[in-house]
Structures are given as structure tokens and as C-alpha cells.
Amino acid sequence: MNCGAKLRPPNPGTPNEMAEGMYSRTRIGICLGVIVILLLRAGGASAQHTIIRLGGGYYDYPPEVASGHVVWRGHDGSGDEIFMYDGTAKVQIPQNDYRFSSPDVNNDGHVVWQQCDGPDCYGGGDDYEIYLYGGVSTTPLTNNDNSDVLPQISNGGYIVWSGCDTDDCSSSGDGDYEIFLYDGTGTTQLTNNDLDDLYARVNDVGHVAWRHDDGSDYEIFLYNGTATIQLTDTDADESLPEINNDGHVVWSRCDTADCSYYGDGDHEIYLYDGSSTIQLTNNDYEDKAARINNHGWVVWVGCEGVDCGYGATYDYEIFLHDGTSTTQLTNNSHDDYRPQVGDTGYVVWDGWDGSSLQVFLYDGTTTTQLTDDADYDWYTRVNDEGWVVWQRRHGSSVGDHSNYLAMPCSYDDDNDNDGYISASCGGDDCHDFNPNIYPGNANIYCDCGEPYPQGTDEICGDGYDNDCSGALDDRDLDGDGYIAEACGGQDCHDTNENVNPGRTEIPNNNWDDDCDPLTPSYPQAANTVASSHGRSTLIGSGLLNSAAVVLLPVLGVIFLRILRWRR
After folding, report:
1. pTM for the complete prediction?
2. How far apart are CA 389 and CA 403, in angstroms?
């Protein structure tokens, strides 16, 4: 890695995690428009957790979780939005139509994110600002001509981000990123130099750790509430730091100047305990992706041997240091990635099962596999109550992505209050987040029996509530809020959310966008035959007439030759 060149923050359209990992953009099935959270019985999942699907758009980005709250960036069919699950329902946080990313949430349900202040934050005309949703309304924390990116919020209400000190922090620009701290009342600039300070993390009392580019490599800095301390000063790269409420900081460092694939070094885990730096690992193998909780427990990914690259003999395992000793939590023949540790001792990660990634939870004594499916379940997070969230990738890398939440079962898990306990928690309710689906329901589609244990698409006019929504003939397959014409509604194209009576007709696109055949969707030519629903067919357009002028004489000659030949 060339650390002399400026490191830019990750694509602002992606979450912070992507700075260290993989990115993927995806679509999710059909949004139902109302809060419909599907209870899933992931084959092989523990019977001690209720698993629900949080996603409701066309694609979801990896979620963040706090006590009682989950937040994520998702698509609603027309653009990206911020969604939050508050333990009862999914809500959409209002914001404008400009591009945003990197939402984060704390235990109070307060959310921060970065958002473009105009339509173009890539062409140089606009820039990113930091916004805070305080539970009722949204407040901009920055308002300038420079980009502010990568925010993070703590449970104490402190917020940090990196802000460019000019209007151009591109690789050829004259600016660099500095660290800013918001304490609930005002903003303080913590750094002021000519090099980049990025990836800041803040704890509940306002201590901040970040990574600084010193011109040749990356170093770790800590603001302890009164002063800034440089924790490292080496010739090797330091990774992204994590900080807990005691001001303890963890990171990984290359033990030589070269930890590239062909280099002679490997990464080790380091912990600053408030007074000195301790090296937690010391071997010839890769140790990285360290995380710390407020009790000083540290988790990380470690290679079992000298080479954990693609096709290598060895693989990555999960390790936990509890302040006294280190325990290897996994020991298998497949890679385990992205560990997280909560304050109550829960550890989560995603592990390869030979064909896809699955979610695993360690509760302090035992490890439970929460998912067992053919999809990729990754980017796991955990809170202190044992809530586990992750992103599920369906199909290929361009397939659907949706977010999921697993909650530990209590003694009476009847989440939809229909009188029946969730099947995944020992009961027999196959869909414990829809009160219209329960055992014994007179509706054959909603009685937890086969072949319709979770409902199906609404069938118009058959007298059944097929989709178990609580109403008959309310089919809205594209989730745009309009009932299909076949069910007596006004949606002339119920598989396209961009076509319904609430849309404005777009000229020249050959779609009846507003489901009104009287509003033209294309220039009216003399011999145009228009379909009132969907695409139109042009018979007499200028293009076809021009083609006819050329083709008709040729076809005439061919026809005469055929007649002569037959004679």
C-alpha cells in the first residue's frame, strides 16, 4: 500500500464497513407499502430466536443495531430512504431526495447520516453534510461548501465525522479531512493539519479515536476529552481503531513495512488500556478486524496458518480475549469473518459453511448457528439484548439483498398478539408478525397449514384473504399503494411501482404512467394505436413511414418475381 498518496473515504454511497470489506449493491423483492415483517423459519436455526425480515424496499444495505433499534439504508421503489425498526414497527425517517449513506443509530433511537445537499456530489457542484434525527425531527449539523462524511453516534449523544477543510478533498485537491466532534450543543474541530484524519470512533463520554495519514503510513490518535494523544508512531500501517467507554482502543498493525500478499509481514492485534499499549497477538499469521466492548473484551479474526488466501490450506477463525486470556471460539475447516462483541458478552460473526455464509452467535457458553440456507448471510451486528442483525444476499452478487433481525425468545413470544406463540420459540404460530396468520384460521391460506403456511399473492374474487392482510381483493403486488385493476382498483400495471394513478405522465416514454389513457404518453401520430395500459404501438410514425418508402418497392419487385416463377 502506498501511504504517501491520500486515502479517500469510501464511496459515500456505501456504509462505513465497506472501507475494510466487500461491497455489493442489490435489489429486494416487492415492497408491501405497509409494515409487513415476515417471520422466517430458517432451516436449522436455533429454536431460541425469532427471526424476522426487516427489508421492505428494492435493496437494503447492511444494518446497524443499538438497544431496541435497527437502522439501515434501503430503497423504497423510487429512491434510497432511511428506515428504522424500533422494536415494534418499521418507520421511515424523512429526508430529501438527494443521495445519502452511512446511517448510524444509538440506544435512544437517534440517527446520523451523511447526505448530499444537492443532486450531484460526484460532479463537484454539491457536497455532503451531516444530519441528525433526534426522534421527532431532523437537524443539519453541518452547512458549508465542503464535504462532511463518515459520521458515528454514541449512546451518550456524541457524534463524530470527518470534514474536508476546503471545497476539494479529491486526490488532486488542495484539501484534507479533519475530525469534528458534536457534544449535543456545539461542534469542536479536533484536528488541524495538512493530512487526512479519517474513520473516527467516539464513546459515550466523548473520547475519540481515529486514523491519521502522516505522509508515509497510518497512525492511531486518541482524544481523551481534554488532550490529543498519538498512540502509535511506527513505519507500518495501523488499521481502523475501535474505542470503548473506558477510552481503551484496539487496532491491528503490520509487524513489518509490507503486509501485502507477497510481503514478509502479517498483522497483530494491539490494545491501549488507558496507560500503555499491549500486544495481544504475536505470531506469523494474520490477525485483524479487532472489535472491543465496554468490559475490555476484544474479538478478532485470526488465520490458523501462514496463508489464508484464496485456495490456501488454512482458514480464518474467531478469537476472543476477555481481559485475561484468549479463547479460540471457532475451529473448523472454513473461514469465519467480521466478528462483533456486545457488552453482555454476545459475539456474532458470519462463517462459511462450504457453499455460503451463515450467521453464528456465541452467548458466553455455547455457539448457535442462526441461519442455515443457500444464501449469503453477512455483515452481522449484535446489541446488548442479544439482537443480531445481518444482510442476506439472495442469489448472485447482483441479486436481492434484504436485512434480518434475530431476537432471543422470551417465555411468551406472541409478537403479533394473536394468542399464538411463535413457532421458532416453541409455539405453533408460523408467522408471528402477522395477526391474520395463526393455527386454526378458517382461511385456508392463513391457518399455518400446507400448502400456504405464510399466505400467497391475493387472488381476486375467490372469497379468500389469500395474502393474509386482513382484507379481501387488496392485491398490490408492486407495493405502490394502489390496488390492481383486476381486483377493482385503479392500478393498471400492478407489477410496476412507477405506473399508477398517483404518478405524473412522462411524455415520450411509451408508458401510461398515470393509468389515464386520455393523457398522451408519446407524440400523437396520425396512425398511432395506443394501449391504455402499458406500452404503446406506433404504426404511422415518421420512422415507420420512412422505412415503408424504401421497403414497399423492394417487396413489390420480389412479389412479381415470385408470381413469374410460379407461372
Report:
1. 0.71
2. 7
Rounded Cα distance between 128 and 388, Å, is 30
Q: Could you tell me if 429 and 418 are in contact, meaning their C-beta atoms sit under 8 angstroms apart?
A: yes
| Long-range pairs, 269-277, Cβ under 8 A, ≥24 | 269/298, 269/300, 269/321, 270/232, 271/296, 271/298, 271/321, 272/220, 272/222, 272/231, 272/248, 273/248, 274/246, 274/247, 274/248, 277/231, 277/232
The residue type found at 35 is I
Per-residue pLDDT of 513-547, as tens digits, reads 889 888 766 544 433 333 333 333 333 333 334 44
Amino acid at 32: L
Instruction: Report the run of H or E that residue 253 belongs to, with start and end.
Output: strand 249-254
Q: Please provide residue 548's backbone torsions phi and psi, each rounded to the nearest 5 degrees.
A: -65, -40
The region of weakest confidence among 202-211, 335-344, 466-475, 556-565 is 556-565
Q: Are strands 148-153 and 138-140 parallel, antiparallel or unpaired?
A: unpaired
Non-local CB neighbours of 416 within 8 Å, separated by 6+ positions? 429, 431, 432, 433, 434, 435
DSSP 400: B
pLDDT in tens, 18-58: 333 333 333 333 232 323 333 333 333 444 788 888 875 56
What are the pLDDT digits (tens) for 493-507?
888 877 889 888 887
3-state secondary structure labels for all residues of 82-144: EEEECCCCEEEECCCCCCEEEEEECCCCCEEEEEECCCCCCCCCCCEEEEEECCCCEEECCCC
Nearest to 67 by CA among 294, 378, 391: 294
Where residue 456 falls among pLDDT bands split at 50, 70, 90?
confident
* CA distance linking residue 129 with residue 12, whole number of Å: 11
Cα(447)–Cα(520) distance, integer angstroms: 46
What does the alpha-carbon distance between residue 364 and residue 384 come to, in Å, rounded to a whole number? Answer: 13
Distance CA 550, CA 335 (A): 65
Contact 28, 55 (CB under 8 A): yes
Pairing outcome for strands 326-328 and 80-85: unpaired
Other residues' Cβ atoms within 10 Å of the Cβ of residue 260: 9
Q: Strand, coil or helix: what is 542? A: helix
Handedness of CA 471, 42, 102, 230 (dihedral sign): positive
Query: Is the Cα torsion angle 459, 465, 468, 474 positive or negative in sign?
Result: positive
For the CA atoms of 75, 78, 82, 87, the dihedral, rounded to the nearest 10 degrees, stands at: -70
From residue 323, give the alpha-carbon distance in Å to each of 215, 276, 278, 300: 34, 14, 11, 14
Strands 177-182 and 111-116: unpaired
CA atoms in the 13 A half-sphere facing the CB of 517: 9
Q: Are 111 and 65 in contact (CB under 8 A)?
A: no
3-state secondary structure of 284: coil
What are 98's three cell numbers? Answer: 438527494
Q: How far apart are CA 66 and CA 551, in angstroms?
A: 68
For range 74-98, the mean pLDDT: 81
Q: Do you find a cis peptide bond into 520, omega within 30 degrees of 0?
A: no
Q: What is the pLDDT of residue 455?
A: 75
Question: By C-alpha distance, which of 386, 390, 387 is closest to 371?
Answer: 390
